[in-house]
Automatic annotation (TrEMBL):
This is Uncharacterized protein with von Willebrand factor type A (VWA) domain. Residues 1-13 have a biased composition (Basic residues). InterPro entries: VWF_A, vWFA_dom_sf. Residues 470-652 form the VWFA domain. Residues 1-20 are annotated as: Disordered.
Amino acid sequence: MVQRRSRGYRYGRWHGGPDPLAPPYDLGDAVDEIGDSVLAGSGVREALRELMRRGMQGRRGLDELRRSVRDRLRQARNAGRMDGTLQEVRELLDKALTAERRELFPDPDDSARLAEAELDALPEDTAGAVRGLKDYSWRSDEARQAYEQIQDLLRREVLDSSFASMKNALENATPEDLQAVKDMVADLSNLLDAHNRGEDTDEQFRDFMDKHGQFFPENPENIDELIDQLARRAAAQERMMAGMSPEQRAELADLMAQTMQDMGLASEMAHLQDALRQARPDLPWGQRGQVPDGSQPLGMGDATTAVAELADLEALSNQLSQGYAGASLADVDEELLERALGRPAVDDLAALRQMERELERQGYLNRSDGKLELSPKAVRRLGATALRRVFAKLTATGRGEHDVADAGAAGELTGSSREWRFGDEQPLDVVRTVKNAVLRTAAEPRAEGERTVKIAVDDFEVVETERRTGAAVALLVDLSYSMALRGTWGAAKSTAMALHSLVTTRFPQDAIQIIGFSSTAQVLRPETLAELSVDTLQGTNLQHGLMLARRFLSHHRDAEPVVLIVTDGEPTAHLEDDGTPFFCWPPMPETIARTVAEVERVARTGATVNVFALDPDPGLVHFVHDMTQRAGGRVFQPDADRLGEYVVADYLRTRRGRRAR
């Protein structure tokens, strides 16, 4: 941001949105990684998803984030047992009964014996015993205090299971405090009813929070946040109950019903539960989910919190897995992620989202009708990257004799020039251009001291060059299924793209065509080749590939013809006279004969035919040696990871040899 002063300017931090001077987001490594996966046979969407799972330099991917969430899940499962409230009620009940019996035992009066009989007749289950003692006249102060502790504990735990932090807020609660809770629940029910009817509740929500905000320490900013918090906790309470044994669940449900009835909240809480279900029907209401299973007993409120945390972590793990139909990074809940793993995890997720957006914004990925594809820009990047890697290997192995100093030249200089015409790519003749401008403006009046010369379009002249004969390169790539089985498919595609990038960017006077062949042959554009899958049809129809190569060479009769063949098997298919493909294994003599005949036709064009055999099978080796002898070429047997190095080096060697002739 620039602020004007009386003299000069003062510079400070930009506050008007994204920094307009920030460098563009660097996607080079991301595009290369996606490209490697695509060339190896993955779809673009799968390649992008794999990159998101791995992450990038300095940023965790979805897999690492999910592993961290699963670790938190294991910790949460060990948080404790869910029967803590029942256990504490039983202990207080035993304490009350023991103290009362101790008080009654020395009393000889019949009333003491009747009281003892009443205690002996109590139901065996905890909830029944607590209910049976509701109207009992305690003689022991210690026993009365223990029973009152049960009542207070149940009130706080039951409310805490529905409203977080209520247990501590209602400790030693007065009748006025309990009335405030009843008022809050009533107002909350009215608010949710109005929301479920579709009414505008913004003002009603603000009034509710002004009046009852002390019961909601999470401080929701709107009614949707309030409903989300309450509904998740209510659903977690149901899952907590479902995770108990039938006996525990029955006892606790009975105690909860007694407590709600005593507080006058039974109908209000039931209505509130129904309203929350209506507002958030997508939550797993009533379903049995993961529950804590540790050794430490938990109260109802803490157990509900633990179950809610487990549900949130399980949902977050599922979101990070991206393993469901229509999955998107937008599905990942940032609030859950921050609660589970902290702010750095949210930053890692934001970096992944930015990378995904930038891949489309900067034109590397195209999305059409729900399908994700590599753009021509991305394909050019893949070719350039593949070529750079090939040259790195050539240099490292000492085989890099690639002289490209004259890359892009159109021919030798003739010493003359001519006027520039639209579309000319020849270099400008600067001297003649300036001379033309000076002569044109010599008669024009000039201001005193003016020395500038204005150059117009008509002044430009370009240097004339002789047309240099280029090369016409036909690269034939085996697309048969055996290429994938042997793990050479990705290397073949990468090699083809590297060679295409080399020819089109550094030797534009040359022409190149990529031809894929399996049961039949087809001409491939780089955009098609990048995402092409191997052909599951049987057959290695080299004859058809050579026919297409010969047709391509016929369109470049002034160029030096070069045919490069990458294959891992001898021919097993050919075209019949009517054009239909025929396959047979082992190869029929007719297939071999038709392929050899096509080799000889290619050889008569003067083409150099070099073969890169990717399988040491004796049949293949014998066939390709016979073929190259007929066409005056050579046979190479590189490892798959050095295929690009061999093909590019051979092309460069062929060009260098042609210039030497």
